[in-house]
Write a structure and sequence with these properties.
heterodimer, A: mainly alpha, B: mainly alpha, 0% strand
C-alpha cells in the first residue's frame, strides 16, 4: 500500500513509510520576519540566546540587519526604505510639477478654444 | 494616499469647449511632469504634452462623462508616448536637459542622496516600470486606475511597481533608510506654498 506524508494527498507510489515531520513553509526558503527573529545568527546551536541575537537579548542591531538581509534575499524591500523611496519620488515629481509651464501651451489652448467660438 | 489630487472628480461638462479649456489648463503641469519622467527630456516632453492637448481637444467627444478626466488625459499621453517610441525612437535616458537648472529643484539636500541622483536612477528604469511607478507612486492613481491607463492587468502594474522600487533601491545602493533622502527639511521646504522657482 502506498504511504506518504500524512498531510499529502498524493500517493508516493510505494516505498516505505515516510516519517511525519514538521510542515515546510509554503514559501520554501522565504521565511517571515517572525521566523527570522527566532533563528540564531550563529550556526552554533549551543550559543546562548544573547549571542544568537535574540531580540530580548542585547544584540537587536544584528537581528535588524539579519531581517534586512533576509528580506533582500526574498526580493522584498525594507518597509522603511520603501517609504523613504516613495517620499523622495513624490518630492522629485512635485519638483517637476512645479516647473513653470511654457506659455505656448496656454496660447495653443486659447487658439483651440477660439476656433470653437461661434462668434 | 494622502497625496491624491483633489481634482479627480470628473467634470460633468468638460466636453464643452470652455470647460475643456479650463480642465486642460489645470492639467498641464501634471501632464508635463509625467511626460518629463517618461521621456527624460524637457523638449520631448513638451512635444508630447502638445500632442496630448491637441488629441484631447479633437477627441473630446470621446470622453465619457462621469469618468476620470485626469486618467483619460494620462491615457492619451502614455499611448502617444509608446506609439512614438515604437515608431521612431528607442527609449531615451535622462540627459543633462533634466538637470537642476531646468526643473524646479529642492535647493539644498541634506540627505546622502541628492535629487539629481534620484532622477538619473529613475530615468534608467525600463519605461514600463517608470510609467507604473510614476502613476502609482507619484501621481497617486490606484493600481486599478494605473492598469486601465496602461492598458494592462492590475497584477502587471503591481509587479512593475515592485520591480521599479527594487531596481531604484539597487541603483541608489540603498542599504538602510538613513542612506536615503529627501529628508524632512527638504520635504518641508518643497511643500511650502511659497516654494516656487521664479
Amino acid at each position: 500500500m502506498a504511504t506518504g506524508h500524512p498531510n499529502c494527498k498524493i500517493s508516493t507510489g510505494g516505498g516505505g513509510p515516510v516519517e511525519p515531520g514538521p510542515m515546510k513553509s509554503r514559501n520554501d526558503g522565504i521565511d517571515g520576519p517572525h521566523e527570522v527573529a527566532k533563528r540564531p545568527i550563529s550556526a552554533d546551536a549551543n550559543t546562548s540566546a544573547l549571542d544568537c541575537g535574540d531580540p530580548q537579548g542585547g544584540d537587536a542591531d544584528n537581528v535588524a540587519e539579519l531581517k534586512n538581509l533576509e528580506r533582500n534575499k526574498s526580493g522584498r524591500l525594507n518597509p522603511v526604505v520603501q517609504a523613504r523611496l516613495g517620499e523622495t519620488l513624490r518630492v522629485a515629481y512635485q519638483a517637476l510639477v512645479d516647473t513653470p509651464v511654457p506659455a505656448k501651451f496656454l496660447v495653443l489652448l486659447s487658439r483651440l478654444a477660439k476656433s470653437e467660438d461661434p462668434d | 494616499m494622502s497625496h491624491r489630487p483633489q481634482s479627480d472628480a470628473p467634470t460633468q461638462s468638460c466636453v464643452q469647449p470652455e470647460a475643456m479649456h479650463e480642465e486642460l489648463v489645470k492639467a498641464i503641469p501634471k501632464l508635463r511632469a509625467f511626460a518629463i519622467a517618461l521621456t527624460g527630456s524637457v523638449q520631448l516632453a513638451d512635444d508630447l504634452v502638445q500632442d496630448t492637448l491637441l488629441k484631447a481637444w479633437s477627441h473630446r467627444q470621446s470622453f465619457t462623462q462621469g469618468t476620470n478626466f485626469r486618467a483619460w488625459l494620462f491615457t492619451i499621453l502614455r499611448n502617444t508616448f509608446f506609439s512614438d517610441c515604437r515608431s521612431r525612437m528607442r527609449q531615451r535616458h535622462l540627459n543633462n536637459e533634466v538637470a537642476p537648472g531646468n526643473v524646479a529643484q529642492p535647493a539644498e539636500q541634506h540627505g546622502h542622496l541628492d535629487m539629481t541622483d534620484f532622477l538619473t536612477a529613475l530615468s534608467r528604469l525600463p519605461s514600463e516600470q517608470r510609467e507604473a511607478l510614476m502613476l502609482v507612486g507619484a501621481e497617486g492613481f490606484s493600481y486599478g486606475e494605473a492598469a486601465r491607463i496602461a492598458g494592462t492587468e492590475i497584477g502587471t502594474i503591481k509587479s512593475r511597481v515592485h520591480r521599479a522600487r527594487v531596481r531604484l533601491s539597487e541603483a541608489l545602493e540603498i542599504t538602510s533608510a538613513t542612506d536615503f533622502g529627501a529628508d524632512a527639511c527638504t520635504g518641508g521646504t518643497v511643500s511650502r506654498p511659497d516654494y516656487k522657482r521664479a
